[in-house]
Amino acid sequence: MRTGADYLASLRDGRVVLVDGEQVDVATHPAFAPVARTVAELFDIAADPASGMQYTAPETGETANRAFGIPRSQEELRLRREAIETWARHTHGWVGRSPDHVGTFLASFAAHPEVFASGDRDFSANVAAFHRRLLAENLYVSYAIIPPQVSRATTASGWDGEYLQVGVVRETEEGIVVRGSQMLATGAAIADEIFVSCIKPLGPDDQDFAVGFVVPTAAPGLKLYCRRPYAPAATSAFDYPLTSRYDEPDALVVFDDVLIPWERVFVNRDTTGVRRQFFDTGAHALGNWQAQIRFATKLKFIAGVARRVTQVNGVDKIPSVQEKLGELGALVSGVESAVLAAEYTAAPDDAGQWLPGKRALYGSMGLQSEIYPRVLAILRDLVGGGVLQLPSSVRDLTSPVTAADIEHYVQSPGVASEERVKLFKLAWDIVGSEFAGRHQQYEMFYAGAPFVVKGVYSYRNFGYEQVLEDVEQFLGSYKIETV
After folding, report:
1. Contact partners, residue 381, CB within 8 Å, separation at least 6
2. Helices 319-344 and 358-383 meet at what angle, rounded to 10?
3. Which of 246, 249, 313, 399 could bond to 94 as cystine, CB 3.0-4.6 Å?
4. How far is Cα 83 from Cα 46, in angstroms, rounded to an integer?
C-alpha cells in the first residue's frame, strides 16, 4: 500500500496554491508541511498490517484501505468504524477532512453506479473506475461542494457576473470545460484530487452549475486561494501543540477554463443528478457517520484535557467541578452513543451496502452546533485564568534569565512547572487560539447551517409517523364519559 513517503513525494507536482499573493510549495511551506506530515503518518498507519485497516477489496482483488471500502455487512460496517477510529485517534479528531471522509462518499457512489446513469450520459463506469483507483492507490481526495457566498438570496443563475460558481462553459470531444469557483475545499492544498460538485439545492435555471467531477489538484488552470494559515505563527509545538500539527488549509477553488476529461465526470448539467449522488447512494449518511466518529474522538480528547486540568488545579473533588465534568461526560457520551446506535440500527440498502441508522446519526448531527460550543464553555470555566497567566513561549522555561522564576511561580502541588504550562498551552489551543476559533466555526457549520441540519436531516429522519401513530392510538382509546 501507499506509504507516507509516497504521499509526500506526490505533493511536488506544480500545483498552484496561493497564500499572501504568492504561489507556494506545499511540501516545504510552513503553512502546509506540518499537516502534510500528519497525513503521511495516517498513510503509514494504514500501510501497517498491524493497524487492522487493511482488507482485500473485492473490486480489485488486492489489499486496500478499509476506510475506502463499501461495507457489505454489519460486521464490515463495524470494522470500518474501527478503521476510522484508528486514524481519528492518531489526530485526536483534529483533522476534520482526513482522507477517509471524502473516500467514504466515493465508496457509496460506487455502491450505486446506476444513480450516475440517469442523465443524458451514462457516467456509472466512471464512478466505479475512480473508486477502484482510490482503493488501488490509497488516494487523498478532498472536496469542494459549496457555492461561493456571493448571495444566499438566489442561486448561481441569478447572480450578476458569469460563472462565479463553477459551471460548464462548453463540452468538447475530450470532456467538459469548467469555469468559476467553489468552496470550502478543506485539505485540498495537500490532497491528490478534488471532488467538485454542489450539495446545495439548485433551481431549473442552474443546469450549467449542476456538475460532479474529480480533478487532480495540479490540473492546469486550477488555483487554490487559501485562508490565512495559522501554523506559521505557531512559535513552537510546545506553545501551540494542535496548531503546529493539524492546521488544515481551507481554500476557494478557482477554475480558469479547466478541461475535465469525460472519464472524470460523474454528473453533467443535471440538477437532479447532483442531489441523487449524495442522497440516493447513501453517501450522505455514510460520510457523515465518518464525521461523527471523528467528532466523538475529538470530544473525548477535550474531556481528557478538562479532567486533567481539574487534577492539576486540585479542584477535582469539589462537587460543583464534578458537576461540570459530569455534564461534559454526558455530552460526549451522547455523541459516542449515537455513533454506536447508528451502527446497531444499520441496515442494507437495495444494493447490499450497509448504512448507519439515520435517526441516531442525524439526531446527533442536529445537536452538534450546540454541543461543541457547550463543551468548549465547560473547558473555559475549568481552566479560568490559567490559560492567560502563562509564559509567553517555551523560551521562558529555558532562558537563564526567566527559567528560575517560571519554575518557582508557575506550578501546582506535585506537578512540575513544565507539565503545568504544557497542559494549559494545550487547553488554550483548544479554546482560545486562532486554530481553536476556526475549529469552533467548523464544527458548528461543517454539515451546513444548523437550521438545515435540524429542519431537514434530523426532522425528516426522526420517524415522526410512528410516534404520531402511537399518540393517535392512545387518544382513540378513551371517550367522553358522563359522570
Report:
1. 324
2. 160
3. 246
4. 9
